[in-house]
């Protein structure tokens, strides 16, 4: 809403007040009336550009204090800007002849957005834009001034000669350099290219001038707008090798700008991915025979304190790589640790201004470019990378030593003693030695996971894996057997090895699953333990290609058994952080009897305990309900569960906050009403969700009862002998031929159930309410519960996992049967084909009534 004119405006005496649209706001008139009018004088030719969003019918107009800009009149003298579908939201004028600005006669201007209804919207109140005084030095050269964002007036101007390539301003090639002249190359993003700095004279161009004067460096710049660390890796070695640089500065910040917009939980992943890509660029720079230097990220207007912490952590990681670091983060950042730009140093939210580029140059230690040390370091790296010579990293004097082969990215760990050794970060001497070696030779001890190849024969069939951190020190534990040498290969070389590359079944950037000659190997590049289980659909599906059977690693550790069926992985496997497991095929699937654990209520304690000992899978009907009567449970099973979600039998009690059942009065639900539900006025929405949820859980209950080798029904809470007998009979009637037993856990005498066939009672009380409140109590109950299951032969190896998607499971079974039938048919055909024929060949020599076929056997018949 625009206020009407008032007498308070009159004293401003704005010369435009009678000419502008009547809906213009007071603030617009105020700041525009202060705009100076410059006398026209011959000067320079300029094309203006600005980024502005508009609605249909809007236009962008340039106005200013000279005749070529309309003397601040948008309608009668302003310069309209144009755009295209490809360039939008970038708007541009044609070339405009403007007066040359001076300190005594500046040329001020602004952009306005004229709405479709001719209402004028000025970009900001108060300050105007000004033509840079530096134009006087280039009066005869047509220039482009890029003013950035509509409404944001930077502290400095960004302009460049007409015809220059703003995407890749260069120079793209090293010119005029002699064979002995050191060469300095920059690769990176828009900031490295000098964008938002006057005439692209950014920190890199200014640094080249300093290096030229001090060390006679030649210079090239391959940075381009929109470049990311990941994008730079494509063709990096080829492009850099052509220029034969001595030093390559890699400066990219675009990747980390996502920290301003990505979810909080994804910020660490953004930084991790950035470091991984940067490390790849550093590694390739060493391989082309140049010294890598890295520029640390820079601030962003939208960064807060959390992003600032991540930026500093990323910088600290870069510092540990042993290569020179161009660290301008503190010099550019606002005080207080906000992560934003210091005042006056940014041209727009993401880029430094000309002043910001000058500050970046001042932060660079030019001594790091001294040619002699650079040449010596590069020569040593080139020798080790090409010769394959091992670099000794540690030696304890007792027969244990570790060397690194840079050409193959291998750790060679030799243990000549009779004792097993442990590599870990707590070994101070080992860690310090690794870090010193990394500082001396940054091309060795590459960060990441190192694994013994699956075809390496180690005592006991062990798989050895260790992770190295940014400084080269170990960050996980590896056991080195006595009297052997262990070759540990970097995970990237294992992925690219011809013998294993074709066998990669799954890789998500952290977890890898390989098919090996003996079985499968799983590697984990994360620092935390990974749980690989059947609910992980992608992993389960790829493991269907493995032969069915039991896979183990002989370590004796829990969760080191992989059960592979027609559905793929059917057990939980744990892979330690920065570690690997090699699971070898041990026995056919038929050798293992798998037991389905099916809870029967009375509360959710069984589900909580199964979750804590990590035996939980998809939900069953009684996992999250309260069923105080075992007789009700037996009736639900016998009648096919369907009335559990019958809306006519359900009602919501607002005071209790639960859904109750009218037929089975011992049945109630506490987890079915969700945020946004109104069960009092719209209970049908809750019932519809319950029908979908509990029909699926009931179907899984039936599937597990009929497909597992045996079933253990579990019931907590007080019950009676009569109820137990009734339940068993009704279960047997529902599932004919089922091999089932019942485990009762309740605080009542066991004599009640004495001599009941297939029934075991344990006098114990697991209180779910207390488990929710006390973690120690929950852990105590879980330990006791695991012991109870162990006594019944149920463990991670024998536990039956019910498929979550039963339709998909049935399809997989049919496919497996069809494949097995096709395999048998193929074997039968092969057997027939392999039998020697009765006659190798024959020829019909006569055809008559008396001798219909006269067959002459050939030789060998």
Automatic annotation (TrEMBL):
<keyword id="KW-0175">Coiled coil</keyword>
<dbReference type="Pfam" id="PF13472">
    <property type="entry name" value="Lipase_GDSL_2"/>
</dbReference>
<dbReference type="GO" id="GO:2001070">
    <property type="term" value="F:starch binding"/>
</dbReference>
<dbReference type="InterPro" id="IPR013830">
    <property type="entry name" value="SGNH_hydro"/>
</dbReference>
<dbReference type="InterPro" id="IPR051532">
    <property type="entry name" value="Ester_Hydrolysis_Enzymes"/>
</dbReference>
<dbReference type="InterPro" id="IPR013783">
    <property type="entry name" value="Ig-like_fold"/>
</dbReference>
<dbReference type="GO" id="GO:0004622">
    <property type="term" value="F:phosphatidylcholine lysophospholipase activity"/>
</dbReference>
<dbReference type="InterPro" id="IPR013784">
    <property type="entry name" value="Carb-bd-like_fold"/>
</dbReference>
<protein>
    <recommendedName>
        <fullName>CBM20 domain-containing protein</fullName>
    </recommendedName>
</protein>
<dbReference type="InterPro" id="IPR036514">
    <property type="entry name" value="SGNH_hydro_sf"/>
</dbReference>
<dbReference type="Pfam" id="PF00686">
    <property type="entry name" value="CBM_20"/>
</dbReference>
<feature type="domain" description="CBM20">
    <location>
        <begin position="38"/>
        <end position="149"/>
    </location>
</feature>
<feature type="coiled-coil region">
    <location>
        <begin position="804"/>
        <end position="835"/>
    </location>
</feature>
<dbReference type="InterPro" id="IPR002044">
    <property type="entry name" value="CBM20"/>
</dbReference>
<dbReference type="Pfam" id="PF08795">
    <property type="entry name" value="DUF1796"/>
</dbReference>
<dbReference type="InterPro" id="IPR014903">
    <property type="entry name" value="DUF1796"/>
</dbReference>
